[in-house]
Amino acid sequence: MITIRDARESDAEAVASLSRELGYEVTTKEARQRLPSAVVFVAEEDGVVVGWCQVAAVPSVVHDPFAEIRGLVVTQSRRSAGIGRALLDRVEEWTRQQGMTHIRVHSNVVRERARKFYETNGYAVTKTSNVFDKVIGTSR
Questions:
Q1: What is the reported pLDDT for 131?
Q2: How far lies 75's CA from each of 14, 93, 137, in Å?
Q3: Over the stretch 42-52, which tens digit does the pLDDT of each residue have?
């Protein structure tokens, strides 16, 4: 049985480990520091965290605020078992509770399986865009 619940700082090791499955190098310490400031839901099966999803409200001056899925991962061995869908259900519930009606998610074009997952769950590709990064120093 899968339980979806709010993430706790004690989930940091599992969150970091699952993140690394997708190629994101995050340490347990970093995850522990970041979890309190984020809305993250975890999927737990038999007391083990097997997936997580982060969502955030995005305000805008040009359209109504919307929810954005910032990350979703299910452990490799449990993919296609309904866990991702259960996490999406919780995100949709959270979105409604926040008074929003729209959810957006970005997915790297190389993640074909993710694209199929989102499309199967009612999400549609609405545009393709570039992502620009710039590393700047701090004023410390």
A1: 86
A2: 10, 23, 35
A3: 999 999 999 99
